[in-house]
Predict the structure.
Amino acid sequence: MAIERITAKEAALRIKHNDQVGFSGFTHAGCPKIVPLEIAKLAQEEHEKGNPFEIAVFTGASTGDNIDGALARANAIKFRTPYQTNNDIRNEINKGVVSYFDLHLSSLAQDLRYGFYGDIDVAVIEASDVTEDGKIIPTSGVGIAPTIVRMAKLVIVELNSWHPKELRGIHDLLDLQDPPYRKEIPITNVKSRIGKDYIQVDSAKIVIVETNVPNDGGGFAPVDDITSRIGKNTADFLVNEVRRGTIPKKFLPIQSGVGNIANAVLAAMGDNKDIPNFEVYTEVIQDAIIDLLEKGRITYASGGTLTVSNPYIERIYKNLPFFKERIVLRTSEISNNPEVIRRLGIISMNTAIEADIFGNINSTHITGSKIMNGLGGSGDFTRNAYLSIFLTPSTAKNGDISAIVPMVSHVDHNEHSVKVIITEHGVADLRGKSPKERAVCVIENCSHPDYRPLLYKYLESGAKGQTPVNLQNAFAFHNTFIKTGSMKNTCIS
């Protein structure tokens, strides 16, 4: 029996108030494009009639504006996990309208299967192909798609012809076992393939919505002086580690977070001839990785998503045989898996909103209370990496904010997991150092010169003990910024 084909509006009408809905994709890549817009319209219509309409939203990571943005503007989201980057939903979260659960990306699929959050009523996923016997081929991002399609009572597939059917073969999708007696994940190198290149589901619960809509991948900001210096400092540090013998000459796989700084660091690594050709085991494959694959500087890339700008995804599709030999896309449960990260000896590089002088990192909150995006996969990699690195400009807001503070206003990664902090001013290698030694290292090498006297004054004012904290002034930088709009006028007593 042929799979039913329906319109996007008809698909949206099959979603009900209070449904728990899972969406495919990881960042904008692999996300459905038109059904979410119809869900948003449906919510608005129901609200105008005086009827409630809200859903719980589960995704692989952040999404395109067609999901988080459109649904937030329609007041259609009651619960959201595990990660977001959209201004509209961020505002709703910080106003307390949307209940948001920030979570390690590697955890969500298994937590859903364990039943921690209840059932998945509907899965809405993007596919490049669907067979009549229920084989679904994802597009440029996977996320939690295999789990949600198996759990869902209804699977709405956006069959998007903008993505070529020839994508089949780029994915490696493993059916994980759940406890007890879970077996090891047999990934022993970046190139290991351990699963299928499709998602198998009962075709009786599939409906298809045909689309032809491009990705909404915007470009990255050009490298500026700050990001260039961060990139150079990182590349130089890694070269020195190879010379010291603490990184093997063959080099180790690299993980890089999403964003302009990560793109700049990868580019700097590619330009540094003292860094040998290397592999990538990461969650997000960005523009710089594509450039370095074409140059041969990166020899293979394993990730969960092609989070690239549209000109780059078009380059990939035009030369698909080349890239299918050099890229594999996995679920977030595998791309971010702690077991695999530790086995392969990953060098992790992620960005921070702020770092404190003792090595704690805040990746998620502004002045302690307002969420920015979320934890993402940074915790998955940081805690289990061979070497964990955090990157940040030393200041923000034209120097009115110091990214190096006495105490972070929110802790996402504590001092026990953070090995190295890098800014445009230098590198703080925290390995083997006591809290006092770490503080001097961070202040001297990473903080902006305008803030060093204040940070040293704070350190000197700290209580005697293992960690010289001054509780009265721990958040003096933040409090001064809230009151005056700048941390420069901070008074340490």
